[in-house]
Structure prediction request, 444 residues.
Amino acid sequence: MRKLFFSMLVLFLSITTVMAQTGEEALKTAKKAFDSYSLNQDSAKLIEAVDMINMAMEDPAMKSDSKALVEAGDIYSAVINTYVIARSTGIGEAVFLVENPAVKAAEAYIAAFDNADPRKGRREKKAAIKGLQGVQGNLSNEGIYAIQDKFYDKSLMAFQASITTHDFLVKNEEESSITPEKIMDEKYYAGLSAVLLEDFETAEPLFITLYEAKYDDASVYDGLYKIYDAKGDKENAYKVLQEGRKVFPDENSLLFTEINYYLAEKKLDLLTTKLDEAIAKEPDNVSLYATLGQVYEQLYTSNKKEGNEAAADDYFLKAQKKYEEGLTKDPDASRLIYSLGAMIYNRGAAMSQQLVELDSDFSKEGQKKYAALKEKVDAEFGKALPYFQKAEMSSPNDLNTLIALKEMYARDSEYEISGEFKARIARIQAGEKIEKSYFKEKGM
Prediction:
């Protein structure tokens, strides 16, 4: 047992000794592999250099060694350079050998400069500055590619590193390849990445800087609106949105943000004007007709409740017209078909409640009113049914449509058909998908 324990102790001490040399030895191997790669562009050597420099950087001593850090920066710079060439030319495979290589290169060069000996480290400082200047363009490239690929966390890191690198060079009275105009672009993309991540705390100072500099892009106003809205600052959100609409009156993104604002605030009268404006700009956008139809429908409902019958009828006709206009753009738009059917059905359902009140009036006059109203109710339901049938043919898995059909056929005592839709509702709620439309199967 003592012999076994002694052997294990010797093994442990040996491993400790190797680990103590790992960083320095890995750095030497990385440098050798990278020198070989620089001479013959053998990708296998670059992979080896990356693996070994990563191992070297795990050693705490290497993280403060300016020579090791410059070597790391050079290797990571080569990685992003090969990636950019492959991605931009299509020659070779665009693969990152390490995550965020441009960011890692910039961080390594800055650390090399900061850790260089004030008296003896002039060579390392010079190499670090040269490396930073060389990687600036690829920091931007790394960020743009990440945005294109929807890796917004990576794009944010890249553009933040680009800004940091520029500021570092300027602070140390060195030349930066980024112009004052270009640095504003970097801040814009950093802010955009942060907004897309919903990291509004990071985005806010960037967009405020852009806003104060009058950066010429509507997204600055849209971004600030989202930031203030997320903070619950409705006053500033609306203020910056209105300012953006004045500066960029033809920018659709701001118009749609304004529409969403009015929707959230239920400012329906103002909303109709904005939606008409949006339709004029995008006449084939079916969702706009559906939204405006729903706004008119809400105005119809509210006026009906308040007893404004004339206004209610006017809004009902306006809603119907917008739904029908949308269907001329896309006759199979199930949302529009269902909305039109539901609006007519709901009007009939509201009328049917009056039937309950008249049902207890057995006078001749009462029965006459009942019969006349029932005829109107039946007519409304009759108008609605074809829309629900068409909606089911367009979207056989829409629960709202199926529920409406189940109830309508039950009302008409067609229990077999009503039962079919009840069964379909149960199947969908159980996670199934209805493959064929009921009415298409019936040849309608």
Q: What stands out?
A: Residues 2-40 form the longest helix (39 residues). Residues 1-21 have pLDDT under 50 and may be disordered.
